[in-house]
Write a structure and sequence with these properties.
Layout: E1 4-11, E2 15-17, H1 36-39, H2 42-47, H3 57-68, E3 69-75, H4 76-80, E4 105-109, E5 117-118, E6 124-128, H5 132-143, E7 147-152, H6 154-162, E8 168-174, E9 182-183, E10 193-200, E11 205-211
Parallel strand pairs: 1-7, 1-8, 3-4, 3-7, 4-6
Antiparallel strand pairs: 2-9, 5-6, 8-11, 10-11
Length: about 220
């Protein structure tokens, strides 16, 4: 069965987006700074159709994530920033244009039905209206021997943790204090975690956790 990995960037004080989110600033005030660690990397830039960038351990980390991901689960807010009927959503075609960076099937959890949207590069968006667990199961089936990435936002990650659907968390902690906004683990509930790997970078610390019963000390 495909491993489910929640991967997301968080500020030191626990936020994945700043306050006052809008369509113009979907990550809220200051939120874009969270991802500066990735913007400079060759692997991230290449996937987004950009040239250049830094190589090294962090770029290899991004390469690893892209290589291991066979399907993605996200919430409606991450997809478009909107809510309600699609015809009332000014960003119903999402943020990423005709060639999104995913290049695998993406399953969007929503209350509003819609036909699957096929994009360039192998990305498809399937809109799942029968719940988060159904979305994860469909993503597992689509991922094959690769993993499922739970991309966000915070509410979807929290719901996946509460439902026991997450096997690992790949957390990128940016050295930034946002002060307020969308807190990642606001309602996640108690979860035993075990550190699997820590990679230090100049603009983020990358911590991989396994989720479940922690190992007893020797």
């Amino acid at each position: 069965m495909a491993k489910v990995i929640a991967e997301i960037t968080m500020s030191v004080d626990g936020f994945v987006a700043g306050p006052n989110q809008t369509l113009e600033e979907p990550l809220g005030a200051g939120g874009m700074q969270l991802h500066e660690w990735a913007f400079r990397l060759e692997a991230w830039r290449s996937r987004h159709g950009l040239e250049g960038g830094e190589t090294g351990v962090e770029s290899k980390l991004v390469e690893e994530s892209l290589r291991q991901t066979g399907a993605v689960v996200m919430g409606r807010r991450m997809f478009s920033g909107g809510s309600g009927p699609w015809e009332q959503d000014p960003n119903a075609d999402a943020w990423w244009g005709d060639d999104p960076p995913f290049r695998v099937p993406v399953f969007v959890v929503t209350h509003h039905a819609r036909q699957t949207v096929e994009k360039q590069g192998g990305t498809s968006f399937t809109f799942v209206t029968d719940g988060l667990e159904a979305a994860v199961e469909r993503a597992r089936a689509a991922a094959g021997e690769r993993g499922v990435s739970v991309a966000g936002g915070a509410s979807i990650v929290q719901q996946c943790l509460a439902a026991g659907l997450v096997d690992e968390i790949q957390l990128h902690v940016a050295p930034l204090l946002l002060g307020s906004g969308v807190r990642l683990f606001e309602a996640a509930g108690p979860q035993p975690l075990r550190i699997v790997r820590v990679i230090d970078g100049p603009l983020a610390t990358h911590i991989r956790y396994s989720v479940g019963q922690a190992e007893a000390p020797e």
